[in-house]
Amino acid sequence: MAENVSERIEELYRPSAEVMAQAHVADWEGMAARAGKDFVGFWEEKARELIDWHSPWTKVLDDSNKPFYKWFTGARTNIVYNAIDRHLKGAYRNKLALIWEGESGETRTFSYHALNREVSKFASVLKSLGVKKGDRVTIYMGRVPELPIAMLAVAKIGAVHSVVYGGFSTEALHGRIDDSQSRVLITCDGAFLAGKIIELKRIVDEALKRSAAVEHVVVVKRTCQEVMMEQGRDMWYHDLMGLPIADPKCPTEIVDAEDPLYMLYTSGTTGKPKAIVHSHGGYQVGVATTLKYVFDLKDEDRWWCAADPGWVTGHSYIVYGPLLLGATGFMYEGAPTYPYPDRWWQLIEKYGINVFYTAPTAIRGLMRWGEAWPNRRDLSSLRLLGSVGEPINPEAWRWYHRVIGKERCPIMDTWWQTETGAFQITPLPSMPLKPGSGGRPFFGQEADIYGEDGTPVKDGEEGFLVLKRPWPAMMRTIYNDPDRYVQQYWSKYPGVYLTGDSAKRDKDGYYWIIGRVDDVIKVSGYRLGTAEVESALVSHPSVAEAAVIGLAHEVKGTAIHAYVLLRQGFEGSPALAEELKKHVGAEMGPIAKPEDVSFVASLPKTRSGKIMRRVLKARAQGLSEGDISTLEE
Ligand code: WTA
Prior knowledge:
Layout: H1 5-8, H2 17-22, H3 28-37, H4 39-50, E1 59-62, E2 70-73, E3 76-77, H5 79-83, E4 96-101, E5 107-111, H6 112-128, E6 136-140, H7 146-156, E7 160-163, H8 170-180, E8 184-188, E9 191-193, E10 196-198, H9 200-210, E11 216-220, E12 234-236, H10 237-241, E13 255-256, E14 260-266, E15 274-279, H11 280-294, E16 302-305, H12 312-324, E17 328-332, H13 343-351, E18 355-358, H14 360-367, H15 372-375, E19 384-387, H16 394-404, E20 411-413, E21 425-426, E22 440-441, E23 447-450, E24 463-467, E25 477-478, H17 482-490, E26 497-505, E27 511-516, E28 520-523, E29 526-529, H18 530-538, E30 543-553, E31 557-566, H19 574-587, E32 596-599, H20 613-621
Parallel strand pairs: 4-17, 6-7, 6-8, 7-14, 8-11, 11-12, 16-17, 16-18, 18-19, 19-20, 31-32
Antiparallel strand pairs: 1-2, 3-13, 4-5, 9-10, 14-15, 15-25, 21-22, 23-24, 24-26, 26-27, 28-29, 30-31
Helix pairs in contact: 3-4, 4-11, 6-7, 8-9, 11-12, 14-16
The structure holds 5'-O-[(S)-ethoxy(hydroxy)phosphoryl]adenosine.
């Protein structure tokens, strides 16, 4: 997607006087220079400016046990105190924290006061179910207000949420519940999406047949279809919230800055997804600072991050970031094209959205419907736009800029990861923009591009993207697997953080992300691992072995292609290919369904038996197979 990098370098979009006049940071170069000289001092200043603490830190950055960095050690806090409680005493008490619209058009709104009441009541309910500080709680829901409410309630009592994206299915959910050992699961009867119902509760029932740890399932009623409620295990949210145990007076548990806030499963280089752990103290500083400066949020703004709360983008920039800043966030339940392809544009018009943040795949998808749809709507409230999840191709960037932003709205192409918690490479509104480039390292960060041997490559050359400085919102570890944390992120080049992406830097210091260099595939911006899709395929009785690779796709960015070796007695056919796609959909989730399935007689492997996906990819693209000296005979 980052083709034509060198030709595009001179295509520069400078900020207008209007943008400059409102920017929180007009002199980004000055601020970058100051933060570059003293990044610890920069983060300390932001921690004081944007966040309240119950007791101060003894050290801003403790790097005595690298790479297990600690931030604001000794400080006492809770992100929910900063996201909700502190606003209740001041001017934000009556301000809208969340505006929500359902797919069928109903609206719900929560002032900070109202949000606090819901969160506190549900936090009390969780306590009465026996949830304690440090316990993991799995949340598997559609995009309804109860999803952020559940997250905030878990965090409020010092427990740790583990949100599983509502688009995942049985095995994906089962694996994540099992690994986290959650005893409480919060879900919905179903979710509305594109006019259909996703039967979340039925998937939960299936997943729980495979694991035993869950004792309580709390079910939010949304779609109202009939669901099985297992006695003694399953309870309705609305029933619990009507009981005296739903006490609106629930003190926020003040925890250590380094205590875990949440874990979020994500795909890595090999094997099963692993849970990235984020903590209360540093995360809130990183998220609040990045959102404030990159999206220039103002008190009167209405902010819409159109991601799903089930991914890190939703955690940081739907739930925590906007609330920390006392902003008004908007959340929409359904599909962007339902009932018509202008649903998003209609919502921007209806709610007067000022800052809008989405993924390139959505832009490309909506682009295909033509300009007439957005042109029917008044988009003049928009001031800034954002992009995340995968490289944005220059054509999509220009369309977004011209048709949605009417050439007035700078586009913030933010590069970051589940692991980083907050933006790491990003433009700022006051920075000249290059379509397709993610800009520069955020204040205090220093990035580089390394060759295989760990020496920096020349400008314009491709290499491994690394981050060279610790940052407060960084992950703290991998849940139950600290060795893997060290091995996967900090071992290839000791002392620097390996991102897993390849990139180039141009002569102006702008970064151009090319894509993943490991076994992670970004399908429509969703992060999936080859291993998980392969094991879903292999769990089908007809499949002996499987390998999947990602290939370029016009709308999805990358699509999954599967190569399958059948067991004896089975024969490849279009019907079996369809069945396998369906099977992956049911086990992993619809987003993981392969684009196509090829039946093969053998898979290229190394002599030690590792599948060489690189060779499959080269063959599919008609390229040279490269060094195949290790290929098995
Ligand atoms: C990719 C999503 C290009 C990248 C926040 C990264 C991007 C992975 C961008 C992390 C961007 C994210 N330009 N690529 N602006 N943002 N990526 O953990 O490959 O779901 O490593 O976090 O998404 O995906 P994750």
